[in-house]
Design brief:
Elements (H helix, E strand, L loop, with lengths): L11 E3 L2 E2 L12 H6 L13 E2 L6 E2 L4 E2 L15 E4 L12 H13 L4 E6 L2 H26 L4 H12 L6 E6 L3 H12 L5 E6 L11 E5 L2 E5 L11 E2 L8 E2 L7 E5 L11 H14 L3 E5 L3 E3 L5 H6 L19 E4 L11 H5 L5 E5 L2 H4 L21
Parallel strand pairs: 1-6, 6-7, 7-8, 8-9, 9-14, 14-15
Antiparallel strand pairs: 2-5, 3-4, 10-11, 12-13, 16-18, 17-18
Helix pairs in contact: 2-3, 2-4, 3-4, 3-5
Length: 385
């Protein structure tokens, strides 16, 4: 719960809910889980939320509602981007709707801020927002109960009016670490009423194609392009190729963030994977932000000085010996495998092996092919639900 943060795509974090449980490979080295079981294990908002294991602290599935943190964004007068539940998941299956209602009452009362929500439970998020207009009275009652002492009727009406539509200051996103998770979560995100929809591909653990996502609504299967056909190049969702297109509301992905994993047990990210996402976004005119390489850097992304710094000084090398790196290295293939065998077909299919160096987050940096990618989505008017 900090007014400042080092996360590249936000300005502050807000944790009215803490705690979670592991649901997919992207959770394995969760920094929030590690902190909750180590440095913050005795903090009232984290105590008892993890169990020890051979691999380190692991979420035990217990959730905590930190009521003392609820009004925090209301005290921040300067507009900022706020990452909601950075140390939990707002739409975890064990979070009651009443907790979410109170959090959205705060968002409705703080239009000066932009709230960035990120979840791995896209189906729960979709269900909540689909029902939100019917729950508007509940959200307003919570807001009035907490903060309406001076003028409860006016505050109630303000919240009711605000949550009847997708809140323009709330960006809804899903975390997708690989193609399987993208196929599962992005369709629910596209079906969720939102001002801005975004994707966090971090930690990126494999190749990701956002151009072909399966969507199922009312038992009718659509084959859609999440970046292009849903608003950037067409105002329709397209049925299967032999069926005429059907008019639908514009549903788009408005922003993509990608990054590698950090921490002592981090897994490397192949440059082919993140380049592909960057190029897909450029083709569809979708803002793209590259957050970090993480713990590992690809040799193709390193400067001569960085590469030289990974080896012993030349004066200490035996002239007939193979250069021995001072840091951990291995070969990563574009398909995610880590063996050192070079297969000719790998080059033909863009899965060429890449030597990776474990440099640490700071040394690895966040340049991709020599550039920094820091794009953000533009706000747009939100139609009625």
């Amino acid at each position: 719960m900090a007014d400042k943060t080092a996360i590249e795509w936000t300005d502050a974090t807000w944790n009215p809910i803490t705690g979670c449980s592991v649901v997919s490979p992207g959770c394995t080295n969760c920094y929030a889980m590690r902190l909750a079981g180590t440095r913050l294990r005795n903090h009232p908002s984290r105590a008892g939320l993890t169990i020890d294991s051979k691999a380190g602290p692991v979420w035990n599935g217990e959730l905590r509602f930190n009521k003392s943190a609820l009004r925090q964004p209301l005290s921040w007068k300067q507009p900022r981007r706020i990452f909601v539940c950075a140390h939990g998941d707002l739409f975890h299956e064990s979070v009651p709707d009443e907790w979410i209602d109170q959090i959205f009452a705060v968002m409705a009362l703080a239009p000066q801020h932009t709230f960035q929500v990120l979840t791995k439970r896209a189906d729960r998020m979709r269900a909540y927002f689909t029902a939100l207009p019917a729950r508007a009275g509940d959200v307003a009652r919570w807001g009035t109960w907490h903060w309406g002492a001076n003028d409860p009727d006016s505050l109630f009406d303000q919240i009711i009016d605000t949550v009847q539509h997708a809140l323009p200051n709330v960006w809804l996103g899903v975390s997708v670490e690989d193609q399987k998770r993208a196929d599962e979560r992005i369709p629910d995100l596209l079906a969720t009423p939102a001002a801005i929809r975004w994707i966090s591909a971090e930690p990126l653990l494999g190749p990701l194609d956002l151009r072909r996502i399966r969507y199922d609504q009312n038992k009718v299967s659509y084959c859609v392009d999440a970046l292009n056909n849903l608003g950037f190049r067409s105002a329709t969702w397209w049925r299967e190729p032999d069926v005429e297109p059907v008019d639908q509301p514009r549903r788009t992905i408005d922003w993509v963030v990608a990054g590698g994993e950090s921490g002592s047990s981090a897994r490397p990210m192949h440059p082919v994977w993140v380049r592909s996402i960057r190029d897909q976004c450029a083709e569809a005119n979708v803002p793209f932000l590259f957050k970090q390489w993480g713990e590992w850097a690809a040799v193709s992304q390193m400067s001569e000085d960085q590469i030289e710094g990974c080896y012993p000084p030349r004066s200490e090398r035996h002239p007939e010996a193979t250069r021995q790196s001072l840091v951990e290295t291995h070969v990563l293939h574009g398909d995610g495998s880590r063996h050192g065998i070079v297969d000719r077909n790998a080059f033909l299919h863009g899965t060429e092996p890449m030597k990776m160096f474990k440099l640490g987050k700071k040394r690895a940096g966040r340049e991709l092919d020599g550039d920094i990618y820091d794009a953000f989505p533009a706000l747009r008017e939100v139609p009625a639900l």
